[in-house]
C-alpha cells in the first residue's frame, strides 16, 4: 500500500516538476496536465480515500499524513471525513443527508429532488458536469460550513469547528500558490495557457473520480430508501448498505488496482476500515452470506455494464423512462 501511495503521488507530482523545468513544448505540457489528472484521480481513490478511512496503514500517523494528500488535490480532510465517512457511509442514498445524491447542479440523482425539464437530457451532459468534481472543492468546501451547522441541529454531525475553518482557509491558499502562483511566476506562460492546463487536469480527474463513484450507487437496483416521519429507516445498517450499493468488479484486476478496489463497493461499505487489497477475497464470502439471509447482492458484470446501467438510471431520474 505504501509503494502504491508513492506511485500515485509520483504520477501527480512528477509531471508538475517536469513542467516546472520549462523545457517542455506546449503539446507536451498538455499531455503532462492529463497525466497529472490521472495521478490526481489515483491519489484520490487509492491514497487519500483509504488513509482518511484509516485503512491504508496500521499507523494512525501514516494515515493522517497520507490523508493530508487531499490538500494537494484542492480538498479538505475534515470535510471529506464528515461528508464521506460519517454521512455517506452511514446514510447511503438517503436524500438530504447523503450529499453524493442530493442537490446537484443541473442533475437529478435522487428521487427526492424536484424534477425539472432540463433533467430529461442529464444522461447527455452529466459526464461534463462530473468533470467539475475536484474543481468544486475550491468553493464547495466552504459551503459545507453551513451544511454541517444545519445538520448539527438534528444531531447528525457536529457544528463546524472554528479551528477547521482556519485550516480550510490557509490550505486553500497553499493549494492556489502550488497550482497557480508558482507556475505563473516561474514559467513563460499566459494566464489563459495556465487556465487551459488547470482545467484539463481537473476535468480528467473529475470525470474519472465521479464516474467511478457513481457506478456504486446511481445504478439500477440500488435503492434510495425514504425515512419515516420520525426520520428512521427500518433496516439493519448492513442490510441498508447491501440495498443501496452495487459492485462492478470483473473488468480487470489492474483496473481494480488503479481505482483502489472501488469496484467492490459493497465490501468497502460493509468494511470501510479494511484495506481494499482484501476486497477481492471478501467478495465471495459476502455474496454467500447475503444469499444465506435472502438478500440481494447487487453486482454488475463489469464496468461497461455498470456504466450503461448508470445512464439508464439517469434517464429514469430525468423522466425519460418509466
Architecture overview:
This protein is mostly helical. It has one domain (2-317). 61% of the residues lie in helices and 0% in strands. It has 13 helices and no strands. It has helices at residues 2-20, 26-53, 60-67, 77-90, 122-130, 137-152, 162-186, 191-217, 237-244, 253-258, 265-270, 279-292, 303-317. The longest helix is centred in the first third of the chain and has 28 residues, at 26-53. The chain is globular and about 60 Å long.
Instruction: Report the helical percentage.
Output: 55-70%
Quaternary status? single chain
Q: Would you identify the regions where 5 or more consecutive residues have pLDDT less than 50?
A: none
**How many DSSP H or I helices?**
13
The averaged pLDDT comes out at 94
C-alpha termini separation: 44 Å
Biggest sheet descriptor: none
Overall tally of structural domains: 1
State the order of secondary-structure elements, H for helix, E for strand.
HHHHHHHHHHHHH
Let me know the number of strands. 0
Amino acid at each position: 500500500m505504501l509503494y502504491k501511495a508513492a506511485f500515485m503521488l509520483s504520477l501527480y507530482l512528477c509531471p508538475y516538476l517536469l513542467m516546472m523545468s520549462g523545457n517542455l513544448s506546449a503539446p507536451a505540457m498538455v499531455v503532462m496536465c492529463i497525466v497529472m489528472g490521472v495521478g490526481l484521480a489515483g491519489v484520490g481513490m487509492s491514497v487519500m480515500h483509504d488513509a482518511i478511512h484509516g485503512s491504508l496503514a496500521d499507523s494512525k500517523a501514516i494515515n493522517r499524513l497520507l490523508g493530508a494528500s487531499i490538500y494537494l488535490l484542492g480538498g479538505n480532510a475534515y470535510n471529506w471525513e464528515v461528508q464521506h465517512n460519517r454521512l455517506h457511509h452511514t446514510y447511503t442514498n438517503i436524500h438530504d443527508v447523503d450529499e453524493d445524491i442530493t442537490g446537484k447542479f443541473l442533475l437529478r440523482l435522487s428521487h427526492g429532488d424536484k424534477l425539472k425539464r432540463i433533467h430529461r437530457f442529464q444522461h447527455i451532459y452529466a459526464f461534463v458536469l462530473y468533470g467539475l468534481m475536484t474543481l468544486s472543492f475550491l468553493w464547495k468546501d466552504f459551503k459545507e460550513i453551513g451544511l454541517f451547522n444545519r445538520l448539527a441541529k438534528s444531531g447528525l454531525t457536529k457544528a463546524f469547528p472554528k479551528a477547521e475553518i482556519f485550516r480550510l482557509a490557509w490550505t486553500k491558499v497553499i493549494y492556489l500558490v502550488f497550482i497557480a502562483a508558482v507556475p505563473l511566476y516561474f514559467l513563460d506562460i499566459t494566464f489563459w495557457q495556465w487556465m487551459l492546463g488547470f482545467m484539463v487536469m481537473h476535468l480528467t480527474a473529475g470525470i474519472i473520480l465521479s464516474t467511478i463513484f457513481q457506478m456504486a450507487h446511481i445504478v439500477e437496483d440500488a435503492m434510495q430508501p425514504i425515512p419515516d416521519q420520525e426520520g428512521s429507516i427500518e433496516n439493519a445498517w448492513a442490510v441498508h448498505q447491501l440495498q443501496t450499493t452495487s459492485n462492478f468488479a470483473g473488468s480487470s484486476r489492474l483496473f481494480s488496482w488503479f481505482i483502489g478496489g472501488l469496484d467492490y463497493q459493497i465490501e468497502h461499505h460493509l468494511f470501510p476500515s479494511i484495506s481494499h487489497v482484501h476486497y477481492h477475497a471478501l467478495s465471495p464470502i459476502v455474496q454467500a452470506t447475503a444469499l444465506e439471509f435472502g438478500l440481494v447482492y447487487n453486482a454488475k458484470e463489469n464496468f461497461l455494464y455498470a456504466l450503461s446501467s448508470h445512464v439508464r438510471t439517469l434517464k429514469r431520474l430525468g423522466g425519460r423512462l418509466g
